[in-house]
Specification:
The chain is α/β, with parallel strands linked by helices. 44% of the residues lie in helices and 15% in strands. GO terms for molecular function: oxidoreductase activity, acting on the CH-OH group of donors, NAD or NADP as acceptor.
Length: 267
């Protein structure tokens, strides 16, 4: 983008936050936060949104993106299969309009809950692979694509457990803590190449990943009392932050973990 175009964008909020012409690759968009963000990006003008899914049986997100006027495609990969993950970015580039990816969003994740003395090695490996190793592999592939072009945005999803330990979720806390450090490490290398790497840390959000917490009246009461906003988050609460981080509005922001938590971390 020319200096004149950047100056024009700075004085035009619609252009500053717009995503016209941008191609987005996103994981974890079949439901919840990822789905809301994928559809929101399309409504903000993203030209082509490419969804990483285990299969094509769920087309709800794709259908809503096309209804919003953007192009949508599905690239098949199971995020627990590292060999499959290694091929995802190249597949997306081949599918993408114009053969390039402008924004990568790592939103896919899984959860396993068990007391740490009983936490199985298989659960540990599953959580670390999906929540951390797939993020690393996709980010590395994105960097190899974006750095030579001197253009790109990478948005990872951390958690409040990027900062806190939580209970009975040792693998998830470890993975999300590492996502925060990975975000900083990649930012340190790539921000000078005009590739911004940031992350979002959701607070407690009413999605299926938290269904066990939502079903525990005592724990639910404790959490509600601790959230200054007095409510759990909803997937729609993340659309604005994602658009901000994917757009020119955040061009001088890199290496940050943006907490979207109803004030939890400020307390």
């Amino acid at each position: 983008m020319s200096s004149l175009s950047k100056t024009q964008n700075a004085s035009n909020p619609s252009a500053l936050f717009g995503l016209q012409g941008q191609n987005v690759l996103i994981t974890g968009a079949t439901r919840g936060i990822g789905q809301a963000c994928a559809i929101g990006l399309a409504k903000a003008g993203a030209k082509h949104v490419i969804l990483v899914q285990r299969d094509t049986s769920n087309t709800a997100t794709k259908d809503q993106i096309t209804q919003a006027g953007s192009k949508a495609d599905i690239v098949i990969a199971d995020l627990s299969d590292m060999d499959a993950v290694k091929g995802v970015f190249d597949k997306a580039v081949r599918v993408a309009d114009g053969g390039h990816i402008d924004v990568l969003i790592n939103c896919g994740g899984i959860q396993r809950r068990s007391p740490s003395t009983e936490f199985s090695e298989s659960d540990w490996d599953d959580v670390i692979n999906v929540n951390l190793k797939s993020v690393w592999l996709l980010s590395q592939a994105a960097g190899r694509h974006m750095v030579p072009r001197r253009h790109g945005k990478i948005i990872n999803f951390g958690s409040l457990l990027s900062f806190q330990g939580g209970f009975t979720v040792p693998a998830y806390a470890s993975a999300k803590g590492a996502v925060g450090q990975l975000t900083k490490a990649l930012s340190n290398e790539w921000s000078k190449e005009n590739v911004n790497v940031n992350a979002i840390a959701p607070g407690y959000v009413a999605t299926d990943m938290n269904e066990k917490l939502l079903a525990d009246p005592n724990r639910l009461r404790q959490l509600n009392e601790r959230i200054p906003a007095s409510r759990w988050g909803e997937p729609a609460d993340f659309v604005g932050p994602v658009i901000f981080l994917a757009s020119e509005a955040s061009k001088y922001l890199s290496g940050e973990m943006l907490t979207v938590d109803g004030g939890w971390m400020g307390r």
